[in-house]
Amino acid sequence: MIKKLPTRQLKAGMIALEDITTPLGQDIVPAGTELTRQIINRMKLYSVESALVEVPNNVIDLMLTESDSSASTSSTPKTVYIPVPTPAPEPAPVPVPAPEPAPAVIEEPIAKEPVADMRNTRIQEIKPNSQKIIESNEFMNFQIQYLSTINDLKDVFENVLNNKGYRINEQSLANSIASLVVSRNTITELFDMLYQMHSLDDSIYAHCVNVALIARMIGRWLHLDSHELNILTCCGLFHDIGKLSISAEVLNKPGKLTNEEFAMIKAHPKYGYELLRNQDIDNRIKQSALMHHERYDGSGYPNGLSSELLIDYAMIIAIADVYDAMTAARSYREPLCPFQVIANFEKEGFQKYHTKFLLVFLNNIASTYQSNRVMLNDGRACKIVMLNNNYLSRPIIQFDNGECLDLSTNKELYISKVL
Q1: Nearest to residue 9, comparing CAs of 57, 56, 71, 58?
Q2: Opening angle at CA 125, ends 119 and 128, nearest 5
């Protein structure tokens, strides 16, 4: 039997009759693949709505049962603020490690990038890194742990919003983020996996987790101790909690906002501070919620504060917030690649952001992609062979024929994609 089924009704053993891709065009599995629980979980994670499949006789009865069950619950309203895909009801193929207690979280240095294994075939070298990531077991494990962290954060946010007697457990949340960091082999792997998670249509929870992860990496590059890292991590986790006070219609509006709607969006830092004000947490977490849209030159909001009134952690969160937002897809544009974001920071960032933190961030982000394959805006693939310290967004690249080009001397070409 051949049917086009909603993803929630798919069962292991069905055969995909067409290539399955995410709404953003990322390949998940090719046509002819037998579906597994892992694949179905991945489809749900990436918001794939349906698939054309062949249903073998031995799973028809199970499929009909699943269909009936889904139909009975399809009218259940969804909560407005949580566009996070629901994990599959089957047990995950890899157990999620529980967050370790605070003393047990030992943040080991992330390894430097490994030297390429010359035994790799040319086909393996050319295969896009994004595809390797999506197909890896490590990424599946990361997704499971990442979604678990999002769900934990969602529960905390809802309690802060609705339960006046609720008290935030900073350490537990910081440990969840720390475990996501230390479970990655390299810095590049962490940022690549984070980049792949941007297919989640989530303007609050996933974004807050992403900003916390990026901020924690900045903190490690600044050599903060574990206590300070945890505070900075929580600054990232709670920076956008004020968006819970804005209606979903305004927050997720695809078109241009009215002046009144834009004013509501610009007020979310104040809303966040009010939600956190009476919590027994480090004051820098509250101040970062209030100040993360302020800028060093006084051009930010909600209060137009300038450098002497801004706290350091809020300025680190501001950088992480902008980086995550720019590398995520928007209704009006595709996600920008890291080097396009670096270029934007180089263009105007040194007036708007704390120079010390921005330089550390840009140097380390660019360095993680040393020796990576990338694509230029003219469609040619190449490899980064050397960074230009004074122009990090325009490194020296090498084409497959051995020819090298210094992008800092050729302003018409730029890196448009990391492969």
Answers
A1: 71
A2: 150
- Residue 350 neighbours by CB under 8 Å, 6+ apart: 358
Structural contact between residues 153 and 212, judged by C-beta atoms closer than 8 angstroms: no
Which of 43-57, 93-107, 231-245, 349-363 has the least mean pLDDT?
93-107
Cβ within 8 Å of residue 309, ≥6 positions away = none
Q: Domains in the chain, please, with CATH?
A: 2-73 (3.90.105.10), 104-335 (1.10.3210.10)
pLDDT in tens, 202-254: 668 999 999 999 999 999 999 999 999 999 999 999 999 999 999 988 888 87
User: Hey, what are 120's tokens?
Assistant: 């790799």
Question: Could you report the per-residue pLDDT of 332-374, keeping only the tens digit for each?
Answer: 677 888 999 999 999 988 889 999 999 999 999 999 888 889 9
The CA-to-CA distance between both ends of the chain, in Å, stands at 38
Query: What is the pTM (predicted TM-score) of this model?
Result: 0.70
Distance CA 417, CA 11 (A): 35
Show the tokens assigned to 249: 């219609």
The three-state secondary structure class of 387 is coil
| Residue 306 CA from chain centroid, whole number | 29
